[in-house]
Predict the structure.
Amino acid sequence: MTSPVSDSAGAVGGGWNERREDYALRRVPLSYRQWGAISLTGVMLGVATAMFFLAWGGQLIIAYGTVNTLIGMIFGTVLIGGVGLVLTRISAATGLDSDLITRGAGFGFMGSAFTSLIYTFNFVMFFAFEGEIMAAAIHDYWPVIPSWSVYLAVGLVFIPLTWWGITAMNWLMWATLPVYLGFLVWTIVLAATSDTHAAFWSHVPTTVANPAAGPALLQVMAASLGLISMATGAADLGRFLPPGKRTGGAVALGFGSMFVTLCVLTMLGGWFTLRFDGSTNPGAYLSGLMGIWGVLFVIVTQLRINTTNVYSGSLAYANFFCRIFHITPGRQYWVILTTVVGTGLMFGGILDHLNAILTFEATFIMAWVMAVVSDIVINKRLGLSPSNFVYKRAHTYKYNPVGVGALVFALAIALPLAFNVAGPLGKTLAPFVSGIVAFAAAPAIAALTRGRYYLPATAASNIDPALPAVGTGSIANIASARADAHTQEVNGTSRCTTCADSFELAEFVSCPFHQGPVCSVCCSSESRCKEMCKSEQQAVLTIKSAPTQSA
């Protein structure tokens, strides 16, 4: 079992155990949702300050020209920022991260586990991109240090940096921001005073990187879709916002961070490339321009971005292994797996295939994210799915054909395109096809199934009277749990029958297997019960017995 966090330490700055966990597998309680939009946006902008975006901007402008790159970045800001706004408002209102939202948005308990794998690869991929850039900077300045040793060092250093979760990340981001901005201003001055006088806004490549892959603008837009996971990353941070500040926080985390990332820093990276003789690897040109200070600049940005990558990857791994293998050692231990996989990708030279990998990854991410968005903006508004976001194992089917079906259908059509079956143009179109098909398929499947796979018949009811009455429940167990809540030091909490830790009432269901209130994580990781609460016999028995018992 995991070491669940006690809500008695639920305020910001609570126990170290809480800071390590950051409610990786459960709803964030109201007592912990006190973070401001400025603080969380600061953490989110750790992504924007990645060297990856400077390198990517250089590659895009060299290959496709400045105007095409700018239009593509505006497109990415509007689309990804819009998705981020929708998801972050939901996460701030519910306290759920993107994975828990996915469960109740058409995928089911086990169905969303596989989207966690898609999500995880995205973060280890960016972890590897950044690691390679830093290795290039260090190796170029100190040729005696082999790149492989830097890869290993990068993997090791981020384990302690992300062990303590969002609290340590917030401190790191704000502490390093002045250093980063100082180095960035220095680089801008060097670029502005460079002897190279290449035109920026009018720059057009002599030939498009791959004319057979379609118009240059289309290729840039396809590559930008590979960053759609930044929208789900915004939601993962947005769950720490107070519900009353969800709209302003969602705008800042969604649109604000995307504008800075794509329209400012990515374009700035393209300008640097043209001013520094066409070099697209900032790890190489910064060490050449600034010497040891350039290497330090790269290291600072590496610390900022890869703490976010490793943290987000550990969240996704924690969710996946909890559901598939019922393993819950704690969010912080999956930090180790995230860094190991990311380090392995560095050795594979992933940076050399940046645009192709982004487009391929976008095919998977778009199918998942657009199926979720479709369920939120269409299915829930049309009454095809429940208006609330059910996430507990006892209240969800293992698989919901709405989201899972939309994902499979979209990938069945788009993956052959991504694998070049229809040639380079088909490969470019793959992420667009994936997103459009998934968005259209989710409401179609929901209508065909009449939404019957969202809420199973269950005997496990919420014990919190403020929540919707999901499940038939056992009134005796619910009454017992509520009575127990009044004996706790913190009002509105109960104690888990399994792990004996206290949480807010919203975390619990009345479990017929354990004969008492069980928290959502213990419910998720329980392998012995065989989901007896969802068995037809148990549900019928509970329904029959409920009216004869007193509350």
